[in-house]
């Protein structure tokens, strides 16, 4: 949808200042906090905050809180994005060498913090992993369920350390990983870069309200996320909303189990799911599911289930 003349003028005014152009160029590369921007731009936080407020009001960027910090990113409004891309395309050099260097410093600091965090939680994950069939068997089954592609747009909801993106991102022209935790996104950024997967956008966001366009993805993944959520039905509905006609949604989670310890020790909200539960939610969301693939544990433990659901190719296409 296009903007009115007043909105366009306000947005152009919002961008029309040297520091603000630098901010737009930086946010085109990454989501950044006020503190990080202040370090990169070498300007005081109040000064940077004033610029950010103006640009937010002009609809060019958006702010979102994450724990104790507030981050900024380019607006997800398609018209605002077109305007920002056009403005940045006009510049012969999008950002100065110093801005580049300092953005890299910020990324390295984040990676160091993320690694420390990962080391702290990794032993807990290893305990859970030891309860089910080996990871490689699950991943091989996911690869088969996804199919060879190529996919136009893959969306991985609750991407965590980005494992699904490194596993399947190479089959997609464009991939988006979304997670609520900046720490996890930082790990994902590092892993995706190491794996050399191109065209991946890592976005901070909530699976319950992704703000991604409807029916825009031909492969959507929700891998080991649902059991952490208070309202899995709503998450499935949101994931399904993103699936385009002919596209598919893969849900990978545990079958119903009775390991109560996982609630206390690992913050699981749900002790797995029954096929009927997931199927009902998928049907309510307008998708057609096939029987799940079951990967039982070698001995006592957790069964991993992979549900594949498609939006029929003749389904009505909705506008985002
Ligand atoms: C066990 S990890 C699974 C990560 C990943 N899918 C994988 O394949 O390894 C669960 C992830 O879900 C994310 N998460 C939890 N609640 C979320 C929400 N409401 N919206 C988005 N991500 C969420 C967590 O931050 C975490 O990274």
From TrEMBL:
It comes from the Bacteria. It comes from Brevundimonas halotolerans. This is ArsR family transcriptional regulator. One of its GO terms (molecular function) is S-adenosylmethionine-dependent methyltransferase activity. CDD domains: AdoMet_MTases, HTH_ARSR. Residues 1-94 form the HTH arsR-type domain.
């Amino acid at each position: 949808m296009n903007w009115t003349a007043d909105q366009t003028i306000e947005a152009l005014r919002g961008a029309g200042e040297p520091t603000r152009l630098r901010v737009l160029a930086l946010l085109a590369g990454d989501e950044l906090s006020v503190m990080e921007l202040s370090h990169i731009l070498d300007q005081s936080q109040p000064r940077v905050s004033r610029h950010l407020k103006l640009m937010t009001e002009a609809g060019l960027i958006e702010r979102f809180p994450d724990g104790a910090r507030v981050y900024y990113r380019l607006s997800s409004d398609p018209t605002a994005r077109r305007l920002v891309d056009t403005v940045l395309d006009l510049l012969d050099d999008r950002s100065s060498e110093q801005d580049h260097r300092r953005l890299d410093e910020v990324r390295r600091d984040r990676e160091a913090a993320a690694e420390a965090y990962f080391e702290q939680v990794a032993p807990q994950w290893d305990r859970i992993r030891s309860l089910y069939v080996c990871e490689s068997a699950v991943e091989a089954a996911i690869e088969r369920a996804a199919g060879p592609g190529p996919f136009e747009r893959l969306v991985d909801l609750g991407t965590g350390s980005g494992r699904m993106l490194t596993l399947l991102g190479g089959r997609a022209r464009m991939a988006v990983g979304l997670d609520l935790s900046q720490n996890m996104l930082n790990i994902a950024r590092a892993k995706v870069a190491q794996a050399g997967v191109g065209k991946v956008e890592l976005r901070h966001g909530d699976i319950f309200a992704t703000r991604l366009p409807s029916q825009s993805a031909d492969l959507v993944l929700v891998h080991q996320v649902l059991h952490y959520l208070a309202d899995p039905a709503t998450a499935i509905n949101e994931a399904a909303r993103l699936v385009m006609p002919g596209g598919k949604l893969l849900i990978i989670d545990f079958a119903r189990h009775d390991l109560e310890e996982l609630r206390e020790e690992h913050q699981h909200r749900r002790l797995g799911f029954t096929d009927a539960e997931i199927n009902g939610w998928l049907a309510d969301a307008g998708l057609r599911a096939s029987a799940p693939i079951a990967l039982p544990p070698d001995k006592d433990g957790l069964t991993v289930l992979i549900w594949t659901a498609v939006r029929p190719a003749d389904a009505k296409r909705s506008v985002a």
